[in-house]
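hey
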């Protein structure tokens, strides 16, 4: 590849892979690199540096540009510090990721929670500035954009809808509460309710339900109702124009949107107030090939 006008780099650091993008000033992706993520503080830094080095080789540019990072866990965006990213082996003291990676790369680095980074990527891809990105993965959490800007909250907890208790008689949640939405409306909850031998319980469940299996239909509908409850809470709180479904379970694509929309329509059939808000009509699933978290991370680097 010949020289290109790269203005920022975005890294989506996940438990299994790290995706890196080189992006120009219009938000166009000009290069993309994936590598397995090495666990632990040193492994995360090593993997990120290797991805940037490969992007430099692919683009033929030194990439002395800002680097944005989206990473799971509790992220202090102002300080660039990450805590409790368990799937990355970051379980001890806080990791000053911004400073360590900036020293390694020789460029400015911005660090953000991965759901928030994905929210910015979804805003850029859809063109909707008032947007909720609902990540349905191992857990359940949302990123909130208001007029195109992230809303994190005073403690960075805005959008932690998965930890809203909805069933006092429900299951214990990892957060210490009981009956949280995450215990019924997350990838881990779905896997527990529909255990399979392979790594794709969501696909297996929806396929069985589509084939008419009564038990699968019941499990699918309970899961969809839980996600619909999260959508309802978010829409009644921030009233976004669009709710983008993301995370690992969203790899199901439109069947997921249809199931959640059906649950929302069922709820609205008994509540004219909800019916007037057209919550089901706000749902959207982006194509699986759109790397919203890495794209959003790259856009972080372009912001003042």
């Amino acid at each position: 590849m010949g020289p290109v006008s790269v203005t920022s780099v975005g890294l989506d650091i996940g438990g299994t892979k790290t995706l890196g993008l080189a992006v120009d000033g219009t938000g166009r992706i000009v290069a993309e690199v994936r590598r397995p993520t090495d666990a632990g503080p040193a492994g995360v830094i090593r993997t990120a540096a290797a991805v940037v080095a490969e992007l430099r080789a692919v683009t033929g540019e030194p990439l002395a540009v800002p680097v944005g990072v989206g990473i799971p866990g509790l992220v202090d965006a102002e300080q660039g510090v990450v805590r409790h990213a368990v799937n990355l082996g970051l379980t001890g003291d806080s990791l000053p990721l911004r400073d360590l990676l900036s020293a390694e790369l020789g460029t400015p680095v911005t660090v953000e929670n991965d759901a928030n980074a994905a929210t910015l990527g979804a805003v850029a891809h859809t063109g909707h500035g008032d947007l909720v990105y609902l990540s349905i993965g191992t857990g359940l959490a949302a990123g909130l954009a208001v007029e195109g800007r992230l809303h994190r909250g005073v403690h960075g907890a805005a959008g932690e809808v998965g930890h809203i208790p909805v069933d006092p008689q429900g299951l214990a949640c990892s957060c210490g509460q009981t009956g949280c939405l995450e215990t019924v409306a997350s990838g881990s909850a779905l896997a527990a309710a529909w255990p399979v031998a392979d790594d794709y319980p969501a696909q297996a469940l929806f396929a069985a339900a589509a084939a008419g299996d009564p038990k699968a239909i019941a499990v699918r509908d309970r899961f969809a109702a839980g996600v619909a409850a999260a959508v309802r809470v978010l829409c009644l709180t921030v009233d976004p124009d669009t709710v983008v479904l993301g995370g690992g379970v969203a790899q199901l694509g439109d069947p997921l949107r249809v199931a959640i929309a059906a649950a929302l329509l069922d709820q609205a059939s008994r509540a004219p107030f909800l019916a007037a808000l057209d919550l089901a009509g706000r749902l959207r699933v982006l194509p699986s090939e759109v790397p919203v978290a890495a794209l959003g991370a790259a856009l972080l680097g372009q912001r003042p």
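The CA atoms of residues 83 and 94 lie 5 Å apart. The longest helix spans residues 214-238.
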